[in-house]
Amino acid sequence: IIQRFHGRYFLSEITAFHVFLTDPSCAEKPEFTPSRLVVKYGDATSAKCSVCEPCSKNIYNLERALGSHTINGTTIVWKVEKMTEWDTNTMCYFTNDTTNHQCCTTLLITVYKPPDRVSISFLNHTGPMFMGHDYALQCEVQNVAPVEKLSVTFYRGQTALTQLQSNNTHKKPVTEIFSLSITPRKEDNGLQYWCEAKLELGPEGPELPPLVTSQRSSSHPDPITVTVGNPLQLNCSAAANPGPSYSWMHSSHRLSTSLQSLLYIKSVTSENEGQYICMVSNNVGYINVTFNVVVKSEFKLQTILCFFLLYLNL
């Protein structure tokens, strides 16, 4: 270190430093076991690094972001009690004292987390679907990492429709939405749609890859609940060319056939409960739309009071 004193310069201290160059052509690089590490976030993990016997006469060590390591002969053992980093690597190296060249090997680490939840839904649509119309299915995968290792498969019944992957390279957990456009066919009536999210972590990952499935989403609407005495209105309107006709059935009994898509019951009774089928047809084809109706009784306060007074008079 050069210092100035009364206009003169003095050499007060000599500081030595070394520059180490990485040698890409190292004949015997350190070796990690395993060569790639896959660990679930929050779990414990470990790996070993070995250097060749002649290499151990040089400077060798381990660079790490977390955990601890011990050196025993030509082996360095790295241990982590709890993985708390999403994007981390560990490097094992030795330095040739003569050439100042450094030989190093990096342990690739994949930290993963299975999804919290997987759900499927139709975008901007509720109720029955109609043949020949286009609909958008969405599969939402919540809080998963790393998303670049995620594959999502859409199913109709037991038939796989397509498999999608994300281009997102975030290492921390994210929520990702995958979309698929579908056009229902006549033979798809009543089939359920669902999706499956799987982390593809390779041979170093768990024996059974983390896999989470969604609920089943049917082309039928949820059951319609109506109280005795109230009106019931069902509508299976469809756009078709030529214009369609509508046939309604309830419990295998035909109710009506007309050009109107609306079925109206002014005051329901318990006999109106059950499955209603609307057949929409023209000279090109047809499709059935199913509605499930649940009829519940209404016990009014006056009725309960009447029974109570009758009981008192007994």
UniProtKB/TrEMBL annotation:
The keyword Disulfide bond applies. One of its GO terms (molecular function) is integrin binding. This is Ig-like domain-containing protein. It holds the Pfam family Ig_3. Its main location: membrane. Residues 209-294 form the Ig-like domain. Keywords: Cell adhesion, Disulfide bond, Glycoprotein, Immunoglobulin domain, Membrane, Repeat, Signal, Transmembrane, Transmembrane helix. It is found in: Membrane. InterPro entries: ICAM_VCAM, ICAM_VCAM_N, Ig-like_dom, Ig-like_dom_sf, Ig-like_fold, Ig_sub, Ig_sub2. It comes from Seriola lalandi dorsalis. It is a single-pass type I membrane protein. GO terms for cellular component: membrane.
